[in-house]
Amino acid sequence: MARLENKTALITGGAGSIGLITAQKFLEQGAKVILVDLKEDALKEAVSSLHSENVSYIVADVTQSAQVENYAKLAAEKFGKIDIYFNNAGIEGVVKPITEYPEDVFDKVIAVNVKGVWLGCKYVLPIMADGGSIIITSSVAGVSGSPGTSAYNTSKHAVIGTMRSVALEAAPRKIRVNTVHPSPVDNRMMRSLEAGFNEKDAAGVKSQLEKSIPLGRYAEPSEIADLVVFLASDESKFMTGTLNIIDGGMQA
């Protein structure tokens, strides 16, 4: 039997690279999936690319409590339950020293990456099926620092606290709550950050970052998705409150 047979999954940031490939793998493992993201055009394209009758979408801003409450309610109504919640939506902000970092950008990063995660747990947890799984996307930036990305680092550290608190609150219902911590991933976000570090030599930035990873390369979105599938499945049924680092050895 497929690993996620008869399970339903909700994915925020569903039109992004990690969200989309995770949706594909969830579907391959038998789950029904709902994607949540900010832009309907991107969601329509994502759903179309998945070629499945078992996927649908909801447009929502994860920073707005009414919209989060609504997507949770609609997701539960669509498939009757929510077994898996991949709380994944996030943005990178800009690359600037803290003394020059724009306060409005900081506020936006915190709103999406921290408040969005917190609101998601607040409204999805009450309607999740007992024995379910919540997976929150953090980053290696959630366990270490880097210059120029103070807002992003702050946000990715913060969601660990959310995860740990919710893991304890959800444990009586056998709902597991864990974070994933990717290294740089070969996707749009890293193209943005590379250019932010050095607009004139983004390729050089990528090369230097790859040299900082013992396995010598960025992660592929599909590799992060494989870890998420494991955490979503019953194979991880005794794991909760954990930080799952997938970084090619960066933290070694």
Automatic annotation (TrEMBL):
SUPFAM superfamilies in the record: NAD(P)-binding Rossmann-fold domains
GO MF: glucose 1-dehydrogenase [NAD(P)+] activity
UniProt keyword Chloroplast present: no
Keyword flag Glycoprotein: no
Gene3D superfamilies in UniProt: NAD(P)-binding Rossmann-like Domain
InterPro entries per UniProt: NAD(P)-bd_dom_sf (IPR036291), SDR_fam (IPR002347)
Family stated for the protein in its record: Belongs to the short-chain dehydrogenases/reductases (SDR) family.
Name the record gives this protein: Glucose 1-dehydrogenase
Organism classification: Bacteria, Pseudomonadati, Bacteroidota, Sphingobacteriia, Sphingobacteriales
